[in-house]
Amino acid sequence: MASVLSRRLGKRSLLGARISAPPLLGDGVLVATQIPPLQPDLSKMSSPLASYEDNHSKEQAEESANQNQNWQALQPGQKVYVFYNGQENAGLVDHHDLVSNEVKVLLLEQGFHICRKATEVRLAEVQVSPLPTLEMDHGTPTTMGYSSLPVAMEHSPTTAPVTVASVPRSVSRNIDVPKRKSDAAVDMDEMMAAMVLTSLSCSPVVQSPPNSDTSIPASQAACDVWKESGDMSDGGSSTTSGHWSGGSGISTPSPPHSEASPKYASEAFSSPRADDGFETDSDPFVFEEPAPRKRKNSVKVMYKCLWPSCGKVLRSIVGIKRHVKTQHLGDGANSDQRKREEDFYYTEMQVKEEAPPEPVGTVASPPLDSSPAVIQQALSKPEALVLDQATPLEPPLPSSALSQSAPSSFWHIQADHAYQALPSIQIPVSPHIFTSISWAAATSTIPTLSPVRSRSLSFSEQQQQQPPPILKSHLIVASPPRAPSGTRKVRGEAKKCRKVYGIEHRDQWCTACRWKKACQRFLD
DNA sequence: TATGCCGGGTT
DNA sequence: AACCCGGCATA
């Protein structure tokens, strides 16, 4: 538990750090631009964040007041950091005006004084002796009281995440000096950052309690942040979801390449989804190693429309169903059959993700080919029809395997049908043909077929009822094994008329057999 | 070798 | 289209 949480924090913390990072560049403007967008959103939210935000703004409005009460006055001579000229400069407190809440700071480098809001001044002393002080800070704000948060922040200068919520202040305060920050501070700030971000992303998972394990030196953290940003995308999105389906809540595997943009951050967070969302993802932030957690081999499932000459690929099952329904079956919601048929017209595809730097796409991301992903099934060849319950259990299940796994009897049945009702179609000859058949069967032919279905193995032609066509169609698992480049049909395993009936009962043979043609009765 | 079936011929 | 068969491929 603790570890998980801590990991989460770790992740969040990084995010926070990341966001705050821009200040490191010495550009306060950047921060300003980044953050504002966040705030409106925050305010819209109903989550605790919103309240926090409210508090926070208020807080900002009344900063001076708060400061007097909540923040200790800066002592003359105290070493602080302030922003000047877009850079953070070390300075000494000359005077702290509690009334105006301004601090006059002597810039060490420049050699002159400047006035800054107390809120824009970052204490340096803590950094000098980081651990002890910070620990103390930690004690107070355990409860996450938002109002009290500022205190924590104030005392932990290096806390990056604060940035998220506290716009201007954070700018100065967050600039990380390569020194370590306290765990406590990290906790709080990270918490906040995480909350903000997660809330933004609408992630359901935000209520995890603060936790810290991150003993990452701030500097390192900063570095890792960027470094990890890439990974995070990876890990963060963890897996299976990624770009595949936005709607379905599948997470997005984001590109490994790092994007420092805030957008990225939001993206990253939006993707990690629901259930495992943070748990798995947080890992990347565990400082131990940036690299280890690239999920390169995660398998994603996509759904491809099998409608002839369509081949549309969607990430969500819902999407594909809708597509089939609307595009091919027609919207006429008239029949249940249609509904069920939707299932029939798409196939699941296992896609191996290899840390593709693929941009997160929209719901429908047809350009699979372009992605480094390894697609088990070629788009061009409609192949496996997978049952609804088709198991993703066997991710790398090659189509061939599928096809082989298909019960021959089934094929037989199918073929029989074809022979009986759709003589013109050679069943399992090629994937294409197969496809067309299935489609034909599924749509118009089915009704026709079922009644026609005729013989089974038995001599007397006792025809037992086969499952309804539709079910049958669902049973179709894969395309025929056939890929015969060439010419001749591989001899099937099934017994043929000759074997079954014997040569002496040649009259019982199917006509094809009699004609020395491919048996139509016992298809492979 | 038996079997399955293609290609092609005949009706 | 139905029927037939030579001949090849495969088990």
Automatic annotation (TrEMBL):
GO terms for cellular component: nucleus. GO terms for molecular function: DNA-binding transcription factor activity; RNA polymerase II cis-regulatory region sequence-specific DNA binding; zinc ion binding. Its main location: nucleus. Residues 303-333 form the C2H2-type domain. InterPro entries: CR1/CR2-DNA-binding_regulator, DUF4772, Znf_C2H2_type. It is found in: Nucleus. This is Zinc finger protein 395. The gene is ZNF395.
